[in-house]
């Protein structure tokens, strides 16, 4: 699919500024078929500048046009699509030029669908997918190949599931959700009672479910456990990256974003509009207020009642420097004792 620069300017609500040496009417009809970085862009492609550290790459770009702010127009040697938020412009244009194939087309003959499944209009189901009794699929739902949709599951309008996804029984998924491949939703939470005897752990059936809100996106190979009694809840607008673990009875508030390989232990409540970076570990049975940011490798062990930025992960350092720092940390206890003794001596004099 291609668009002219004039069409793109309209769709982005951007101002098209053409270098003075070029003819405006001719440039505005330039055909655009792709997006690329400033360094790799060629004629017929659009690039964008959203981070000032890439400003130097603007000088040598071969893009037909670059999405920039008004402050960067003078430095742009090619046509400019000027808007306040170039990154949003990139996102809109990427959607226009998206060539991702559909996950399925129609209902494949090898799909196994129970007789009482409710199918909306324009539902697509891929090869070798199994859909059990009582499932409700709304209009324009698309389910990729090799999926398993358990008993009584409900999936809302225009939601898309890629290949090899497992949705356990009674899970509810809202409308316009996107779930990437190999994700598991509704698996048993980690619930066991300690007992005496040969086998130390007695399994506790997980009787709750998982409720996924609307416009939620879930990355590949992410696992969301069902609740023990109440439900695990992922509320509207949440975005989850790949390989995330969300334990039973967790609640994640609206529009919170969570990056790859982070984990949330059971019965924790995350507020709205939080940002959780990669490799963050969040303890169970705690509450985190709205608008918190946790930087990479943070370990959250207690309630957070005040919005802000929280960190605890140690950044990498040269090995010799790290060894010295670690040795100092190990001596902190004895150093603290010595300081207290000195304080007592000073207080007595």
From TrEMBL:
Gene3D superfamilies attached to this UniProt entry: 1.20.5.170, Hexapeptide repeat proteins, MurE/MurF, N-terminal domain
A GO cellular-component term linked to this record: membrane
GO biological process: lipid A biosynthetic process
EC number per UniProt: 2.3.1.191
Keywords of this entry: Acyltransferase, Lipid A biosynthesis, Lipid biosynthesis, Lipid metabolism, Repeat, Transferase
Domain named UDP-3-O-[3-hydroxymyristoyl] glucosamine N-acyltransferase non-repeat region: residues: 30-96
InterPro entries: Hexapep, LpxD, Trimer_LpxA-like_sf, UDP_GlcNAc_AcTrfase_non-rep
Gene Ontology MF terms: N-acyltransferase activity; UDP-3-O-[(3R)-3-hydroxyacyl]-glucosamine N-acyltransferase activity
Membrane spanning stretches: none
Pathway: Bacterial outer membrane biogenesis; LPS lipid A biosynthesis
Catalytic activity entry: a UDP-3-O-[(3R)-3-hydroxyacyl]-alpha-D-glucosamine + a (3R)-hydroxyacyl-[ACP] = a UDP-2-N,3-O-bis[(3R)-3-hydroxyacyl]-alpha-D-glucosamine + holo-[ACP] + H(+)
Active-site feature positions: 248
Class of this enzyme: transferase
Record Pfam families: Hexapep, LpxD
Quaternary context: Homotrimer.
Family the entry assigns: Belongs to the transferase hexapeptide repeat family. LpxD subfamily.
PANTHER family (alphabetical): UDP-3-O-ACYLGLUCOSAMINE N-ACYLTRANSFERASE, UDP-3-O-ACYLGLUCOSAMINE N-ACYLTRANSFERASE 1, MITOCHONDRIAL-RELATED
Protein function: Catalyzes the N-acylation of UDP-3-O-acylglucosamine using 3-hydroxyacyl-ACP as the acyl donor. Is involved in the biosynthesis of lipid A, a phosphorylated glycolipid that anchors the lipopolysaccharide to the outer membrane of the cell.
Name the UniProt record assigns to this protein: UDP-3-O-acylglucosamine N-acyltransferase
Species the sequence originates in: Colwellia psychrerythraea
């Amino acid at each position: 699919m291609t668009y002219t620069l004039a069409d793109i300017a309209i769709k982005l609500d951007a101002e098209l500024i053409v270098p003075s040496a070029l003819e405006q009417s001719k440039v505005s009809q330039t055909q655009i078929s792709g997006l690329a970085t400033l360094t790799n862009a060629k004629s017929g492609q659009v690039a964008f500048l959203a981070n000032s550290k890439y400003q130097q790459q603007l000088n040598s770009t071969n893009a037909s046009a670059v999405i920039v702010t008004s402050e960067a127009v003078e430095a742009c040697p090619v046509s400019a699509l000027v808007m306040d938020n170039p990154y949003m412009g990139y996102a809109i244009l990427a959607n226009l030029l998206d060539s991702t194939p559909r996950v399925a087309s129609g209902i494949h003959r090898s799909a196994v669908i129970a007789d009482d499944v409710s199918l909306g209009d324009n539902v697509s189901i891929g090869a070798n997918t199994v859909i059990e009794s009582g499932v409700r699929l709304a209009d324009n739902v698309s389910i990729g190949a090799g999926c398993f949709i358990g008993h009584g599951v409900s999936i809302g309008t225009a939601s898309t599931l890629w290949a090899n996804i497992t949705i356990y029984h009674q899970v509810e998924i809202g409308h316009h959700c996107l779930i990437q491949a190999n994700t598991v939703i509704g698996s048993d939470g980690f619930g066991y009672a300690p007992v005496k005897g040969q086998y130390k752990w007695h399994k506790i059936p997980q009787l709750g479910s998982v409720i996924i809100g609307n416009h939620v996106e879930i990355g590949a190979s992410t696992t969301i456990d069902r609740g023990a009694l109440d439900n695990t809840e992922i509320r509207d607008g949440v975005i989850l990256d790949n390989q995330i673990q969300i334990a039973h009875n967790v609640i994640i508030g609206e529009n919170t974003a969570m990056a790859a390989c982070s984990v949330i232990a059971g019965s924790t409540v995350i507020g709205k509009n939080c940002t959780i970076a990669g490799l963050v570990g969040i303890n169970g049975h705690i509450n985190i207020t709205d608008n918190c940011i946790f930087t990479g490798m943070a370990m959250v062990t207690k309630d957070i009642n005040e919005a802000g930025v929280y960190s605890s992960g140690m950044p990498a350092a040269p090995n010799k420097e790290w060894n010295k720092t670690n040795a100092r940390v190990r001596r902190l206890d004895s150093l603290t004792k010595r300081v207290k003794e000195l304080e007592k001596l000073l207080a007595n004099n």
